[in-house]
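Renewal narrative, Specific Aim 1. Our central claim is that a sequence can be written position by position from structural information alone. The example that follows is taken directly from our test logs and has not been curated for this report. It begins with the structure tokens describing the chain, in the order in which they were read.
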């Protein structure tokens, strides 16, 4: 299947699996096979329904079987999209507190990497695990700049991308990281407050429905 499936589509699937945190260590081709497998399974159930239907084989029952097969093909995609959204939401919620911790540790004289290590030690959430992977990348010889860029790519969260861009620019210009972290921390808290107001404004409409 990997031989016939377009490489461009596989790259897109690979990127989405990365955003979802590589659930189950699935490879791109594994996920494609999963989609076809679920589609075949539900199509088979649909065909059993066709032959077991009281009225026998009909256009309606065949259409139902086809719909079940199509649903089976798209269900893994729905599941993956949900995983991506849940993971990104968890990272967004953890960012302000993580930046507060980084600001405190940096202003106390610790290095940026030590601040990330403190977050890993004290918390066990998706952002802390991503910081741990970034630390491992740095420990294996990768530059901090590249490790942070890959962190932003793995999460796909605008807040993380903004944080990474600010840090890399500060490193280029020789600006104090502590000052940049404090600015970013305040900015993240403003964003969190704005999101809370937005959700509060949407709540009455959702409750009504």
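The sequence written for that structure reads:
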């Amino acid at each position: 299947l990997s031989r016939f499936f377009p490489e461009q589509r596989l790259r897109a699937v690979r990127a989405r699996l990365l955003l979802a945190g590589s659930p189950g260590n699935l490879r791109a081709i594994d996920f494609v096979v999963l989609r076809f497998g679920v589609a075949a399974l539900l199509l088979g159930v649909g065909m059993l329904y066709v032959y077991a239907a009281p009225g026998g084989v009909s256009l309606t029952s065949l259409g139902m079987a086809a719909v079940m097969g199509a649903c089976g093909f798209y269900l893994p995609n729905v599941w993956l999209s949900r995983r991506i959204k849940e993971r990104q939401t968890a990272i967004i919620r953890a960012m302000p507190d993580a930046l507060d911790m980084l600001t405190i540790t940096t202003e106390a004289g610790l290095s940026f990497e030590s601040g990330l290590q403190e977050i890993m030690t004290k918390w066990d959430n998706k952002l802390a695990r991503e910081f741990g992977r970034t630390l491992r990348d740095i420990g294996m010889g990768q530059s901090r700049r590249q490790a942070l860029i890959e962190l932003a790519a793995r999460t796909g969260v605008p807040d993380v991308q903004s944080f990474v861009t600010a840090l890399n620019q500060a490193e280029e210009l020789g600006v104090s990281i502590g000052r940049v972290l404090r600015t970013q921390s305040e900015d993240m808290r403003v964003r969190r407050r704005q999101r809370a107001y937005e959700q509060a404004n949407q709540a009455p409409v959702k409750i009504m429905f």
